[in-house]
Amino acid sequence: MGRARAQRSAGVVVASKRAIASALLEGHAIAFRAGALLPSPVRRRLGKALRMVGAARGGPRVEDWSTPIVLGPRLSAAAITGGSTPLTTPANGESWASNPELAEPQTRPRLGGAGGPIAPQLRCLLVTSALDAGGMDEVVAFLAGHLRNVDVHTAVLHATPKPLSEGTPTGRIGRLLASQGIEVLEASERAGRAWVGSWGPDVISAHGAPGWVLEMAQDLQVPYIDTLHGMHSLFGTDWAIEALRAEKLAAVVAVSETVRQQYLAGNPTFPQDRIITIPNAVDDRRRPPADRSEARARLGLTSEYVFVSLARHCLQKNSYGLVTAFGEVAESYPDAHLVIAGRPDDARYFRKVERLRRSLPSRDRIHLRDHTPAPAEMLAAADGFVLDSFFEGWSLASMEALFAGLPVVISEVGGAREQVGDDPRRGYVVPNPLGDPLAVGWQTIGAARYRDQVNRPDVVSAMRNLIAYRSSYLDGRERLAAESAVRFSPAICLAAHADVLTAVANGSAPHTKVRSLRTEK
Length: 521
Fold this sequence. Notes:
Elements: H1 2-34, H2 40-56, H3 77-80, E1 122-128, H4 135-146, E2 152-159, H5 172-179, E3 183-187, H6 189-199, E4 203-207, H7 211-220, E5 224-228, H8 239-246, E6 251-254, H9 257-266, E7 275-277, H10 292-298, E8 305-310, H11 319-332, E9 336-341, H12 347-359, E10 366-369, H13 375-381, E11 384-387, H14 396-403, E12 408-411, H15 416-419, E13 427-430, H16 442-448, H17 456-468, H18 470-475, H19 477-487, H20 490-505
Parallel strand pairs: 1-2, 1-4, 2-3, 4-5, 5-6, 6-7, 8-9, 8-11, 9-10, 11-12, 12-13
Helix pairs in contact: 1-2, 10-13, 11-12, 11-17
């Protein structure tokens, strides 16, 4: 009897685990929509669980980078990455050397004139809920590394409910920052509060930080600047509650004017002079140019036209709509390929995209790949970049494509007009998949995710134009790269952030005199 009871109990446990796993697999999209900025340890655990369940069910898997894009001799991961170790070094295997223009810190001012003591260095604590592989994570890394060159001492708190290892950063970017001598703590609220109190920041720059960080700043009487990387964290928010929370903020930084206007539309009582637009910059330490011929050879490419989309596999990035549009483009251009490379954040959505891919005649030319260990090489090998997102704050991927000299097709999202404008030499801004970018919310994009989207004809037309004028775009790559290096210069972004941080720390109005050149031709 005891043995039979044990077997029945074991069977119940197994069945329960299967039920839980199945529920996770079928319902996890809701979880990601509800928490777009989940802490990276939670995302990693959930992602691992979903991939294991998907593998057990025989579902589709995202392609890795052990094979070339076009069929040919099998390449090892080391061959594709140039022998680098992407989890511990930048994609091209080089160290994170600073931009030569920013290598020397500014001379620190002296109190009371030339003969007085040196003024204390501003201490800025960057706080984030994610420090692994996302765009927000990249911005935090850029600020943590570069603000030191404009005389701002930085440290990073990765605030997470249940850290994998209290104190030690576990995310990819967190480890990279620590390897460069930047103080990085991955901690829960209790440990985080104690550490911040001892570190003694003059100002806190928050990036998707949990609510307790603002409470802590109030307790410590440290001014708090909230950074809006996009409106997704505020989709469905109670704006009356947000207005009360915003009264505690010293300032808000929006990464694009679209995001700034979206926030003010929801919280119109917030003082307009306390919300500043500071577009992101290219972190040129991490995206040095790569050789196009070598990159294409490693990926098995010869004369093919390659569109690349560096985007996570999830609802936000709208890869279903992009694959649909490319299927129409591919009918007229048999040598055209589409590579979507990114972390598979949403397994259920990915399966839908994979089914769509398999249903198309061009299925062998649509490559749904994992996060690339060598994004600079992928951009060098590609001919055009395309991003058909429902929403963005300021896409780093499209900006880095322009920095690499690639023409861009991007939907009307935050930063699109600033990056591309109306200059066809840079590419094309097409309408948002919903038509109106201000209508974006989880409910509206959920309803449109698998339907024929209103911008599909525009996406198809823009992609065809890039192919038709391939030679002109190839000839103009150096010019576009040089122009983009100026427009997206780290110096512009850093000067603006330093202005706001210094003003807020001194109790002054958060102003900046820096103006972007992004919309000029």
